[in-house]
């Protein structure tokens, strides 16, 4: 049925893998974390990045914007001279094996 509909509009046949690839590209372009997309696809992050690097176009400017916003917030909330502050850093949790 899908094949017939695709032929009627002049589109080449789709494979199940094409749908999987489209989903991965959509998730990445939506900004889903690399680790989560890799987990959903059953890939390592390294495999995900090497396979879907094309979906990551524009990430540099997005990352720069987020970093600048974080720095601006940090500078605006920096304690006055002479006062102390504490920062709590969290260690990322190890990915669980499937």
Can you characterise this structure?
This protein has 5 helices and no strands. It is mostly helical. It has a domain at about 15-75. Helix 3 (about 35-40) crosses helix 4 (about 45-50). The protein starts with a helix and ends in a 22-residue tail after the last helix. The relative contact order is 0.08.
Our estimate of the beta-strand percent is: under 5%
N-end to C-end Cα span: 35 Å
Structural class: mainly alpha
Assembly classification: single chain
Average of per-residue pLDDT values = 79
Counted beta strands = 0
The biggest beta sheet reads:
none
Characterize the overall form.
Answer: elongated
Low-confidence stretches: none
Helix content: 55-70%
The secondary-structure element order is HHHHH
| Total helical segments | 5
The whole-angstrom Rg is 21 Å
């Amino acid at each position: 049925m899908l094949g017939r509909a695709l032929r009627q509009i002049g589109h080449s046949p789709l494979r199940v893998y094409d749908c999987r690839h489209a989903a991965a590209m959509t998730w990445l372009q939506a900004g889903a974390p690399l680790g989560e997309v890799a987990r959903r696809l059953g890939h390592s992050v390294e495999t995900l990045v090497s396979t879907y690097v094309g979906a990551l176009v524009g990430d540099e400017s997005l990352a720069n914007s987020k970093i600048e916003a974080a720095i601006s917030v940090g500078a605006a909330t920096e304690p006055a001279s002479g006062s102390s502050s504490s920062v709590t850093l969290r260690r990322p949790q190890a990915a669980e094996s499937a």
